[in-house]
Amino acid sequence: MEDDYYSVESILAENQKIQCTFKVDVPDMGHLDGGKAGDIKALSKVQIPLWMAYILIYSDHADFTIPPPFSARVRNALNAEPRSVRLSALVGQGGLWYGFGRMLMRLLNDVPAEELSGVLTKTFHSRLPEVIDQAQHFASLQPGAGTSRGDAGAAAFREGMDGTERELFQLAQESAKRTKAWYETSERGRR
């Protein structure tokens, strides 16, 4: 995922909402809470898109809590078995869990940011071999060939892949198909 102003992935990651607790009264902004109240009172908790939270937090108007996709419960599940966690379900449509985590790290202090970075990196390193393995497996299947019934765990993993993992899956699958086609047309493949 690029940190580019025009990057669709960045826009989607920054559109994820986090819960902010306001430190001050904010007049005429009650619509952010989805209500009809005109003001947001101090100590009110409001779900705000990450791109808006940057301004509020850096100007010291609000604090935030770590969102559920990065809670201690999720971290424990990732430490136990990273491949069993459905990352796409943690952040909603589009499933950019890694991108949301990278954007969230910008709001954290040094130690929590390093911890989150460690979780993201460890999760990615643990899941990447499975992503590549499944991509190569599906690239080797003949067109129209179905998957076996014993493939339920692999199917569940594919359904739970993050957007970044899905992109890598597609790249690895295409690469495996091209390598197979090259091999079959080379001298070695004709023997």
General description of the model:
- The protein is mainly α and 191 residues long.
- It has helices at residues 8-14, 50-58, 72-80, 87-90, 97-105, 110-140, 152-159, 163-185, 187-190, and strands at residues 17-22, 45-49, 62-64.
- It is built from 9 helices and 3 strands, in the order αββαβααααααα.
- The protein starts with 7 loop residues before the first helix and ends with a helix.
Give the fraction of residues assigned to helices.
Answer: 40-55%
Shape: elongated
Radius of gyration: 21 Å
For the largest beta-sheet, the strand count, sense and barrel status come to:
3 strands, antiparallel
Label the structural class.
mainly alpha
Q: N- to C-terminal separation?
A: 43 Å
Number of E strands:
3
What portion of the residues fall into strands of 2 or more residues? 5-15%
Q: Name the helix and strand elements from N-terminus to C-terminus, one letter apiece.
A: HEEHEHHHHHHH
Strand order across the biggest sheet?
2-1-3
DSSP helical segment count: 9
**Could you tell me the mean pLDDT?**
86
Low-confidence parts, pLDDT < 50 over ≥5 residues? none
